[in-house]
Amino acid sequence: MESLPLLFFPFLLLLLLFSASNSEEFVFNGFNNRDLQLDGVAEINSNGLLILTNATKYQQGHAFYKTPLHFKSTANGNLNSFSTCFAFSIVPANPSFGGHGLAFVLSPTSSLQNTFPAEFLGLFNSSNNGNPKNHVLAVELDTIKNPGLGDIDNNHVGIDINGLRSVAAAPASYYENGIHGYKNLSLISGEPMLVWVEYNSQEMKLNVTISPLTVTKPSLPLLSLTTNLSSIFFDSMYMGYSSSSGSMRTSHYVLGWSFKMNGQAPALNPDSLPNLPSKQIPKKNSGLVHKLLITGLAFLIVAISAITYVTVMKIKYAEILDDWELYQYQHLRFSYRELYMATRGFSEEELLGIGGFGRVYKGKLRISKTEIAVKRISHDSRQGMREFVSEIVSTGQLSHRNLVQLLGYCRRKGELFLVYEFMSNGSLDKFIYDETGKKKLNWNQRLSIIKGVASALLYLHEEWEQVVIHRDVKASNVLLDEELNAKLGDFGLSRLYDHGSDPKTTRIVGTMGYIAPELNKTGKVSTCTDVYAFGVLLLEVVCGRRSILQEDYSNSINLVDWLRKSLRRRTIMESWNAEAGSDIKPEEIELVLRLGLLCSHHSDKVRPNMRQVMQILEGDLPMPEVSDASSNL
Ligand SMILES: *[C@@H]1O[C@H](CO)[C@@H](O)[C@H](O)[C@H]1NC(C)=O
Ligand SMILES: *[C@@H]1O[C@H](CO)[C@@H](O)[C@H](O)[C@H]1NC(C)=O
Ligand SMILES: *[C@@H]1O[C@H](CO)[C@@H](O)[C@H](O)[C@H]1NC(C)=O
Ligand SMILES: *[C@@H]1O[C@H](CO)[C@@H](O)[C@H](O)[C@H]1NC(C)=O
Ligand SMILES: *[C@@H]1O[C@H](CO)[C@@H](O)[C@H](O)[C@H]1NC(C)=O
């Protein structure tokens, strides 16, 4: 009897620890239906763009996450670590003058009242600015130099505690991983940019990093401040944005936002961020002086160009070709000039998309007229590049009707280009998550896509000379050709992170929602982790929705868990909610749903291998029964 409480003790302790660890997390790629509390001129437009100020003078706008978050542990009152990332854009009416800026803010209240616009950024007023009772932490993106507030220039990032006189500030710039230096940014360029605000409560380090939207996160922050925020923060704080305009009409936008307590904020997906309102083209001044000036300038430019043409061409098309490539990979080499011509100078009009690894352009080879897709990846041409190129390029030898064929590659200083066959129907995610309902797949098409992807994975796992693990199976990596045949793309690219330009980004390869539980724990990829991701993909294809639904953060639904519950309640067939085609076969749908759940089973021991998956799909192997006990939720 006496030993009973003792037995319970570790369990209780565990329970306590568990309840004390706060892991609040969200990702908003755009703010459609997100619960933000808005005031002032702030509004969310129909595309999900958060507009804090809208090109009206002397305005302010606030947007706060609707509930406060617990920044201190309920168990011991210690401050949590946190990390957040947001995408913003500042668009002034006159391209050379903006004002005043925007700030990410943590505050005890979500109704900032009696605050002033202009240099007060909607955060404080003239009497409470700098008051320690404010308990406000802000990261300002300030576009006006105000000497009265100690501003360093008209384009800076600053950390503000309780007031607008920044405790740390630096001109807006980002560490460029390749060149080992900071590169200047113009906050009022109108270009979307990312800001990371990260706090480690043990080290008492508050880091702020800014970069253009399209580059990978810089390995060094812009600002790194040692400060114990414990006395600034209350147990729970509101988190959001504040912005103001002054005498210059300027719009301040926030495009997306992610946050995680006690961990790394998830990355935003540049592809799904809302578009910015299209710019108004300023009327051209057609005065005589203007014309003369332009003609003169043009003449000068022509003269200079003529002289330097040859030199420039040499530099423009310069490539890197190392000895080791000459022997092994010569046949896969494309010249940069060829790719440049094919994509019309990597023109924005040819841009097919922006992915985690870089931009993808459509192109047409001059001589053969073959259509291609060129993936442009920036990299550190340091160690690991050779290994990476040889690995990626050796996948050019893989050939299977359900794999996107790599046609070749090209290397320049700081850039790698991968050339693939062009897939006219784009990626599968555009079809299955399509909210506009324009792109539809009927059941037979869905089943054939599933079988295609399964067959590609079987080839990679078992049928080639060596085992190839894809590492990033997901809907956006499945491409469809003219006849909607599925082809798996991007294999091996996630290795780029392993050979990594930046050893500090020990990031788990894969994409949220597709990561097997054991991968989260051990970080080790295997064929089983591919099978897991395939299982999730399969469920998404059948149900026509994302694996993680974040309609509203507090109600986020995990598709796998939800389906597993409905399987036990025997209501699984109700989850088939895709557009009803005339060709629906309930037995097939149920089989595929069950198979998806088996593949995405939390235990890798229970998951089938890809050969068994193929056999089950073809009806050559019965569906194994998994007891409820082992699917233990
Ligand atoms: C900006 O917002 C204000 C207040 O909501 C509104 O009166 C004004 O018309 C808006 N201006 C523009 C250019 O949208
Ligand atoms: C500044 O804000 C505080 C807090 O809301 C308020 O009490 C005070 O009256 C305001 N001061 C001015 C000058 O508006
Ligand atoms: C970057 O901006 C800083 C501050 O505005 C300036 O001093 C520096 O010269 C700029 N560097 C370049 C390369 O333009
Ligand atoms: C902040 O940046 C420094 C490098 O300057 C790094 O050592 C530290 O781990 C970073 N801390 C956080 C919380 O990101
Ligand atoms: C920060 O300050 C609080 C009290 O103000 C203290 O309890 C805590 O230990 C401090 N944190 C660190 C890392 O020193």
Automatic annotation (TrEMBL):
Record membrane topology: Single-pass type I membrane protein
Superkingdom of the source species: Eukaryota
Catalytic activity: L-seryl-[protein] + ATP = O-phospho-L-seryl-[protein] + ADP + H(+); L-threonyl-[protein] + ATP = O-phospho-L-threonyl-[protein] + ADP + H(+)
Binding site for ATP: K375
GO molecular function: ATP binding; carbohydrate binding; protein serine/threonine kinase activity
UniProt KW keywords: ATP-binding, Cell membrane, Glycoprotein, Kinase, Lectin, Membrane, Nucleotide-binding, Receptor, Serine/threonine-protein kinase, Signal, Transferase, Transmembrane, Transmembrane helix
Transmembrane segments: 292-312
Entry keyword Transmembrane helix: yes
SUPFAM superfamilies: Concanavalin A-like lectins/glucanases, Protein kinase-like (PK-like)
Domain named Protein kinase: residues: 346-626
UniProt EC number: 2.7.11.1
Major site of localization recorded for this protein: membrane
GO cellular component, one term: plasma membrane
Location of the protein in the cell: Cell membrane
Signal peptide stretch: 1-23
Stored Pfam families: Lectin_legB, Pkinase
Protein's UniProt keywords contain Nucleus: no
Family to which the UniProt record says this protein belongs: In the N-terminal section; belongs to the leguminous lectin family. In the C-terminal section; belongs to the protein kinase superfamily. Ser/Thr protein kinase family.
Protein name, per record: non-specific serine/threonine protein kinase
UniProt source species: Dendrobium chrysotoxum (Orchid)
Organism lineage string: Eukaryota, Viridiplantae, Streptophyta, Embryophyta, Tracheophyta
